[in-house]
Amino acid sequence: MNGNGSAAKELKRLLGEGNVKTGASAVAACFLAPVDGADLVLVTPKDVDGLADVAAFSYESEIPLFSVRRKTDAGNLAGKKGILVDLSGMNKIKKIDLRNLTANVFVGVTFEQLAAELARENQRLLYPLAGTSPSIVRSYMDRDILMGEGGYRHPHISVFHAMMADGQMWVSGSQQLTDEGHADFREDQGPQFSPFFGASEDIFGIPYYGLVYTYPNREERRLVAFGFDNLEAARDLLYKVSRAEWCFESFAANDRYLSVILAGGDAGAVAGMKKKLNPWTAVFTMEHYKDLVDVWERYIKEAAREMGGKLLKGQVPEMCEKALSGPWNVYDRDYFKGRTETVDCYNYFKNVPDTFSVIDEKVKAAGLKPEETGKIVVPVYFGSSAYCETDFYYNAKEAKAAGSVADACVKSYEALIDQGAFIDKPRGAVAEMLYARMDPSYVNMIKLFKRTVDPKGLLNPDQLLEGV
């Protein structure tokens, strides 16, 4: 692709000289690791017209078009040829709608950028706890698990716009001929196809704009934290509080996970922080009128006391409150040992201990230490299910360590699927493994919809499944 001077020349004409770059270093700047063997031209459109021009040119020239989705996606593009589009420059906040509690934003808008604007209106966002992109639209379209998920369901994005392979626009919502639409993932009088775009690796279209939900800051906010000696007791408290609707944000994490989160990017401080923590810590925030928060706090403390929880005071709760003021990105944990990988799933609360036991078995089999993995549990929609995540911290430059982590991750997912856990947004080998066990009609539907909206198969080929 880089050798095709006429294509690069046309892209520069369409977007401007400064918005088209070639070479491995230009592409590598979008990711945490080099993109091995790729031959990609990087384009950075600044508006919808520019993106449409790139898509139309790609389609007419039959050049594959890839999108930058997450900082951790370098391996997915190894050996690929074509055009790579980075939408971080489309970072306009179009509107903050206080009446409907939404913000109309383009895909380049970051959590920090929107949070600063919302703070002026006494509003806030829900932040991801395993984020892989700074983009709000990307994170919400990918169905990233969010703090505050206990009382609010997926998705946290309403109407969205996406650029299709040929340069046409997809607008979700029940009024597709209007600029914004107005309903959550509902289509006009027919099949609802917009949900296919979520966590689809952009094989149907590239999301570039959306209406994301915002939340008002309440009169009173408070945080309480409790230390536990075992997972079971922490899980039981988490379940009871979330079912009773006594909290806003809530999670339970082991000492390794929380020490990495609270050490503030200082690898040397992680060990000392871990010593200050109980084996498991359950954390709850409450937001509402002061009198109601007083009642909730009393109820939570009584329940924790009955379950053997130790009320934590001082540094740990204060640091938890500070940490919750922004997104928890997986790549921000790389400071600890160099690289972080996750295994995550959803399960019933009663199955949480077994879920982590299954993963620990595969960790041991791969020659790793389970006690060195981070673990966190987050209730989803009033405790109807539990999000379970295990973090692996390792040095990616050490081939043996990287191989062991990769083996543990794949084997863990295989065991979790056998256990009946729900694996959301699978990619790569995990997607192949999961879809092979599903009804073939589901994969056939994905392929049929892909052929319908992208008959040439040029948009992010092989990014969700090989051959799609």
Describe the structure.
The structure is a single chain. With 468 residues, this protein is an alpha+beta fold. It folds into 3 domains: 5-85, Uridine Diphospho-n-acetylenolpyruvylglucosamine Reductase, domain 2; 93-216, Uridine Diphospho-n-acetylenolpyruvylglucosamine Reductase, domain 3 (2-Layer Sandwich); 220-419, 3-Layer(aba) Sandwich (Vanillyl-alcohol Oxidase, Chain A, domain 3), CATH 3.40.462. Helices cover 34% and strands 21% of the residues. It is built from 14 helices and 18 strands. It has helices at residues 5-15, 24-28, 48-61, 111-119, 136-141, 231-244, 255-262, 270-276, 290-306, 315-323, 352-365, 399-419, 428-435, 440-453, and strands spanning 20-22, 39-43, 65-67, 81-85, 93-97, 102-106, 123-124, 157-163, 169-171, 206-213, 215-216, 220-228, 250-254, 280-288, 310-311, 339-347, 374-380, 385-394. The strands form 4 sheets. Strands 15-12-14-13-17-18-16 form a 7-stranded antiparallel sheet, with helices on both faces. Strands 5-6-10-8-9 form a 5-stranded antiparallel sheet. A hairpin with a 4-residue loop joins strand 5 and strand 6. Helix 7 crosses helix 8 (270-276). The relative contact order is 0.11. Mean pLDDT is 92; it is low at 181-190.
